[in-house]
Amino acid sequence: MANVVRLVLPDGTSREVPRGTTGAEVARSIGPGLARAALAVKLDDQVLDLDRPIERDGRFAVLTAQDEAEALELVRHDYAHVLAEAVQRLFPGTQITFGPATEDGFYYDFAPPPGRGPFTEADLPAIEEEMRRIIRADKPLRREVWDRDALIAKWRAEGEHFKAEWAAELPEGEEITVYWSGEDWMDMCRGPHLPSTGRLDPEAFRLTRVAGAYWRGDPARPQLSRIYGTGWLNRAQLEAHLARLEEAARRDHRRLGAEMDLFHFQPEAQGSVFWHPKGYALWRTLEAYMRRRLDAAGYVEVKTPQLMDALQWQRSGHWGKFRANMFVVPDEVPTTDEGRPPVSGAGRWMALKPMNCPAHVLIFRQGQKSYRDLPIRMAEFGCCHRNEPHGALHGLMRVRQFTQDDAHIFCREDQVEAEIVAFIDLLDSVYRDLGFERYAVKLALRPKERYGTDAEWDRAEQRLRDAVRAAGRMSPEYGWEELPGEGAFYAPKLEFHLTDAIGRTWQVGTIQADTVLPERLDATYIGEDGERHRPVMLHRAILGTFERFIGILLEHHAGRLPPWLAPVQAVVATIVSDADAHALAVVERLKAAGLRVEADLRNEKINLKVREHSLAKVPILAAVGRREAAQGTVAVRRLGGQGQEEMSVDAFVAWLRAEATPPDLKRRR
RNA sequence: GCCGCCUUAGCUCAGCCGGUAGAGCGGCGCAUUCGUAAUGCGUAGGUCGCCAGUUCGAGUCUGGCAGGCGGCACCA
Question: CA at A566, C1' at B58: how many angstroms apart?
Answer without folding.
Answer: 49
